[in-house]
Write a structure and sequence with these properties.
Layout: H1 7-18, H2 22-27, H3 29-50, E1 56-61, E2 81-87, E3 95-100, E4 106-112, H4 117-129, H5 132-139, H6 141-147, H7 170-173, E5 178-184, H8 186-190, H9 194-204, H10 206-216
Antiparallel strand pairs: 1-2, 2-3, 3-4, 4-5
Protein name: DUF2461 domain-containing protein
Pfam families: DUF2461
């Protein structure tokens, strides 16, 4: 792909972690903007490559400024880059996320972070009716060698309202988020193969996205909603 994550990005955030205040940052804002511009090329490159095998209609790279109004942590700045890639709705569902943070805290994520209530109910109803297809996807060796064989994310303690806690698919039904993540070391992030690995990993999620897109664009009888 020709574009790499600059080492300066990780170095800057390591220093910012120890000096997370406006005076320190403002003195180095010009340097940060230069780094940010380089990193934006990384996100743009992934956006373009994703669009060779998927339909991504929007890239959103998040700002460094933290919203501290309702947080006990009053540090004004994030110590990472984050950006999401939105699939073309309504026919395509799911999303991609890239998080770049030093000290081996970088990761990619895919799936459904905050499903709308109607979508969450539809997913749960699908698993209640038939969980065989999603379990087949999760059990695929190539898939789970990259993404693991189980969802991560929040879940209810026993069962959502209207569902039996004794149901054989309750492990899936009680989820509130349907996410997969893959972690990277600093060395891996700076490697020339990093963007290729990110793209290959995102590409490998497609059986899951195809399935969930089909679920979320049809009713329980399989009739299209779009």
């Amino acid at each position: 792909m020709g574009v790499t994550v600059p080492k300066e990005a990780l170095d800057f955030f390591k220093k910012l972690e120890k000096n997370n205040n406006r005076d320190w940052f403002n003195e180095r804002k010009k340097a940060f903007k230069s780094i940010e511009a380089e990193v934006k090329q990384v996100y743009n490159s992934i956006f373009e490559t994703l669009n060779t095998h998927d339909e991504i209609d929007k890239l959103k790279m998040f700002r460094i400024y933290r919203d501290v109004r309702f947080s006990k942590n009053k540090d004004p700045y994030k110590t990472h880059f984050g950006g999401s890639f939105h699939r073309a709705k309504p026919k395509l569902r799911g999303g991609y996320y890239l998080h770049i943070q030093p000290n081996n805290e970088s990761f990619i994520a895919t799936g459904f972070w905050e499903p709308a209530p109607a979508d969450l109910l539809r997913i749960r109803k699908e698993f209640e009716m038939d969980d065989s297809e999603i379990r087949e996807i999760l059990a695929n060796k190539k898939f789970n060698s990259i993404w693991g064989d189980t969802f991560i994310g929040d879940e209810v303690k026993t069962a959502p309202k209207g569902f039996s806690k004794e149901h054989k698919a309750i492990d899936l039904i009680k989820k509130k988020q349907y996410i997969f993540t893959k972690k990277y070391t600093d060395k891996e992030v700076l490697d020339t193969n990093f963007l290729k690995d990110v793209n290959d990993s995102f590409k490998a999620i497609r059986p899951y996205f195809n399935y969930m897109s089909d679920v979320l664009t049809t009713d329980l009888n399989g009739v299209s909603l779009i």
